[in-house]
């Protein structure tokens, strides 16, 4: 019998599926639940157990991990008679890896504590590729002892794993991460349009730029998206729109000015309004092209 903790996983989307599979590869027992049958079939094919409800998923788990799109979904799966808090055992550790508002994480931790359930907020950065390769950056909020318990599990999912402070801190750092990523993608998109309109070999230009101070993980990960106009979603505009709302609201609450971030948030919103919300966030290039008269 394995001495590793039993894991319940809720949310098997673009990120959740490969992450749960990496836990299976590391030897953990994973029972999963999501709304899409094909994702449950994928988990079962990888060696996990598909469950038919949240209650069934979490009832015997030592650790419950959630990876869903936003605060309303976290609240829907956590609360109520069919939710995690009413059906997980006392002493279980709930690790929410969704990207949600810091206040949602704080409220969840407080409510869970009253039921004897420990909570960490542990959002991630790295996109689909980082999830597949188990090289995610994981920013955590919560108690040191709970972080120490979770660390071996998180090490099967990511490479950079840091406790950032009390409950909600992981979400605050993730919001800052999404601000940096969005601004970086926007800058790269503007550079791509500028280079192409100037008649420069784009592939060569991006190679040399990425070797200098302008280089970044964003440019490394998204270079082929720009070159090939391949906007298959690794991280959708819809989700980045949600995250930019989180960071601008949180910044307003603490009195931090985000002048460039506010502009990029509006550009993300405009792209979504034009029907591109399901595309990868590298599709910010499309917005720049439209503004530059390069795309219908």
From TrEMBL:
Enzyme class (EC, first level): oxidoreductase
Keywords: NAD, Oxidoreductase
Keyword Oxidoreductase: yes
The keyword Oxidoreductase is annotated on this UniProt entry: yes
Assigned EC number: 1.1.1.60
6-phosphogluconate dehydrogenase NADP-binding domain residues: 6-165
Stretch forming the signal peptide: none
Classification via Gene3D superfamilies: N-(1-d-carboxylethyl)-l-norvaline Dehydrogenase, domain 2 (1.10.1040.10), NAD(P)-binding Rossmann-like Domain (3.40.50.720)
Domain 3-hydroxyisobutyrate dehydrogenase-like NAD-binding residues, every copy: 168-287
Gene Ontology molecular function: 2-hydroxy-3-oxopropionate reductase activity
Recorded family membership: Belongs to the HIBADH-related family.
UniProt cross-references to NCBIfam families, sorted A to Z: tartro_sem_red (TIGR01505)
Descriptive protein name: 2-hydroxy-3-oxopropionate reductase
Native species: Streptomyces kurssanovii
């Amino acid at each position: 019998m394995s001495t590793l903790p039993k894991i319940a996983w809720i949310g098997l989307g673009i990120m959740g599926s490969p992450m749960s599979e990496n836990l299976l590869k590391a030897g953990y027992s994973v029972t999963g639940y999501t709304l899409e049958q094909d994702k449950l079939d994928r988990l079962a094919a990888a060696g996990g157990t598909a469950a038919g409800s949240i209650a069934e998923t979490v009832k015997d788990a030592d650790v419950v991990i959630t990876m869903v799109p936003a605060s309303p979904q976290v609240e829907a799966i956590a609360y109520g008679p069919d939710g995690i808090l009413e059906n997980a055992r006392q002493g279980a550790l709930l690790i929410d890896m969704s990207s949600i508002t810091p206040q949602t994480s704080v409220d969840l931790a407080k409510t869970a504590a009253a039921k004897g359930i420990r909570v960490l907020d542990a959002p991630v950065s790295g996109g689909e590729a980082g999830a597949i390769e188990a090289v995610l950056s994981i920013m955590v909020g919560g108690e040191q002892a709970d972080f120490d318990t979770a660390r071996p599990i998180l090490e099967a999912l990511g490479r950079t794993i840091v406790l950032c402070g009390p409950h909600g801190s992981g979400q605050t750092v993730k919001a800052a991460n999404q601000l940096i990523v969005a601004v970086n993608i926007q800058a790269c998109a503007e550079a791509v349009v500028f280079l192409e309109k100037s008649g420069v070999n784009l592939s060569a230009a991006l190679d040399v730029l990425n070797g200098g101070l302008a280089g970044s993980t964003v440019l490394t990960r998204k270079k082929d998206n720009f070159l090939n106009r391949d906007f298959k979603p690794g991280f959708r505009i819809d989700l980045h729109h949600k995250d930019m709302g989180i960071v601008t609201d949180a910044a307003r609450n603490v009195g931090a000015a985000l002048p460039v971030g506010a502009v990029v948030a509006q550009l993300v919103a405009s792209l979504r309004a034009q029907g591109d919300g399901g595309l990868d966030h590298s599709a910010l290039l499309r917005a720049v092209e439209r503004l530059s008269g390069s795309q219908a």
